[in-house]
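# step 3/5: fold
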Amino acid sequence: MVIATRRFEFSAAHRYWRDDWSAAENERVFGPYTSPYGHGHNYTLDVSITGQLDERTGMVMNMTELKAIVNEVLEEFDHKHLNFDTPYFRDQVPTTENFIRVLWRLIAARLPAHARLAHLRLYEQPDLWADYDGVGETQFSRLYTFASAHRLHAPALNDEENREIYGKCNNPNGHGHNYTLEVTVQGEIDPATGMLVDMAWLDQTVHSVIDPLHLHHLDNEIAAFADRPSTAENIIVYLWNELAPRLEGRLALLRLWETRKNIFSYAGPASVPA
């Protein structure tokens, strides 16, 4: 099946708050998101649809028709305060995780019979977003950065082989990158907080792993790379092995940008057949 995606943008404000909690409890859980006046975002929504191709038009669905349907839904939220101007968050916190499920219900119900909603991705910020496909668990992603130096040099190879394979990346004095790490977690949304994972805890956990790499030389200062080349492939596996147990089974995917052109993904070791 072909999947077609259209991007939409809208602006809204929201506030994280539960009336049945004390102010102290709200502030402990939601931190600065409890401001009584709320705060705002320029949201980006990617809407993906699928279905049988129409033999006459060659399309799953006319993008003009999809645009009209989604814009009708977003009209309820654009330039609105989610808590006060919409009916959807009177009994739930307007987190990205809850919001994407509301949008799913509203958009899916309006699609014609020949098209099916396949996936939604809602960006609250460029470095923070949620994914939902209508079934199963929601995914929540966040970007982090760290800067490290390294030299691609494999102890199992001789100097000539290393120079031939790694080229200028084998420079004895090393080189470096601004790495970007995308961390995707998956699980059930906490019905009380509306969050899949506490963001402060997630940030603290990820930084506990990447901060020792930041502004350091991977080969010379990180023990894991003393006997293996610090390729992006080895780095992302190292990050998974460090993060997975700390994130208590919630880690679903890592994606690592070494440069804008070199991107690596890892979802954990493959299961071993019995």
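# step 4/5: annotate
The chain has two domains: 1-134, 137-274.
# step 5/5: archive (pending)
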